[in-house]
Amino acid sequence: MTTAAAPLTDVFSPELRPVLRRLGERPLSEEAATAQGAVWAALAEAGALRDADAVLPVAELLGETLYRGPYLDTVAAVEALAALPGSPRTEPVLDAMRRGDLAAALAGPDRRFVRCADQADLLITVDGSEFTVVELDHPGVRLSEHADLGRGGLFSVDVDAGVPHVLSGRLADPRALTDRIRSGQAAYLAGLSRGALDLAIAHARRRTVFGRPLGAHQSPAFRLAALAARLEAVRSLVHREDEPAHALRLARELAVDTTAETLQLHGASGLLDENDAQLFYRRALTESALSR
User: Fold this and answer.
1) pLDDT tens track for 228-269
2) 3-state secondary structure at position 49
3) What is the pTM of this model?
4) Alpha carbon distance 114, 174 (integer Å)
5) Which band of pLDDT confidence, cut at 50, 70 and 90, is reported for residue 179?
6) Angle formed at CA 66 by CA 121 and CA 176, multiple of 5 degrees
7) How many CA atoms lie within 13 A of 10 on its CB side?
8) Cβ–Cβ under 8 Å, residues 35 and 19
9) Exposure string (b/e) for 141-170, b if CB count within 10 Å is 16 or more?
């Protein structure tokens, strides 16, 4: 784990994860909004917004807890804007994003929905190499939240033609931004798979069938072991970062397979709203569809 990611283990501790998993659900309570702000402050304080080496480990932590926030979009935006020639307009925005004073949401032709736009300050729209940055609280910017399977956090965004640009221009390397988005999402899905697998293993140890723990029976034990092996293989590919499209594809498949197995092992109880098994499955489906 990187230096920046290490302090976050307290924020994302096993005791707090059941609470953090519910922060994306709507309607958002005042307590949940406060908790979201505290998590964002912890990310900024740990240096996770300015340390490129922290992105993938932090993304895995976010996935394990099912935490939905603007972190992945913000760090991808920081990397893309940092590659531009320095300018008096760009540097203050970059500095504010690295400090955590500004959060970004990304939109583009390959993204039908914008994640966590309600928690961001800036909307960055990318079309090929062209990009524009606008303030999300401008009256000409409208958010429409979708009641998705993952229980909230996905938006469509409409921007009027007259909304002033905070920044605009051409990206130095559009492919690099796409690769960063893919790598971050693959790491998030790998973390989501690990969280679901931990939940399944814990249930298999507790649940007794025919006088023995469920996990002591050959069939479920072998299935969980196979998923654990796949998870390590996917994580290895994700952290190599040389094939982000392939890593994302495998991470998507793993997330759906692992959460489906977790839901199946829990049986009917896994379908209850208070059970996290159904939430992992919901998020696996929606998060797998976000980035191509």
Assistant:
1) 999 999 999 999 989 999 999 999 999 999 999 999 999 999
2) coil
3) 0.93
4) 18
5) very high
6) 55
7) 7
8) yes
9) beeeeeebebbbbbbebebeeeeeebbebe
